[in-house]
Amino acid sequence: xxxxxxxxxxxxxxxxxxxxxxxxxxxxxxxxxxxxxxxxxxxxxxxxxxxxxxxxxxxxxxxxxxxxxxxxxxxxxxxxxxxxxxxxxxxxxxxxxxxxxxxxxxxxxxxxxxxxxxxxxxxxxxxxxxxxxxxxxxxxxxxxxxxxxxxxxxxxxxxxxxxxxxxxxxxxxxxxxxxxxxxxxxxxxxxxxxxxxxxxxxxxxxxxxx
Length: 210
Description:
- By secondary structure, the chain is α+β, with helices and mostly antiparallel strands.
- The protein has nine helices and four strands, in the order H-H-H-H-H-H-H-E-E-E-H-E-H.
């Protein structure tokens, strides 16, 4: 049975291939080439990928990114499509699903929504529920730098507190849109925000995400 991560991986590869290496993304300073290199380094160079979280490994990460960014773009896209090496932890279905379903969804939207002709994508209910489940568990982590209280709300009324504080801003949207918002793509997320005008303005420019 195909997992959400596997489906989003293939979609991301297709989108990168169609957009081309020089196309923009929602990731500041990254074209599709850099985004593709990031995905490959993250799952094929664990010795360098730690630099995403640890400053002490930042130099190693930068070197690996430079190395992979210089590779033929078609090779990068194919490496994403075929997945990690057999001995990688990401090759285990459970770990791949836990670590990559959200990662690949967000990056697929990074490519889609940076293009001038993008159109909304309707997610199936099962995937939406899966995204919401992940978001509930990660809300406090992604919202830890919020300058205001932050509450996430689905259209069905389910809520999650991403950051305690006052004043409070409530962000309402489908799970996929809330995920993008919480991962720092506030401007691209189709959500509604309720709260004091100044608090809303501060939240929309805050550095949310991991």
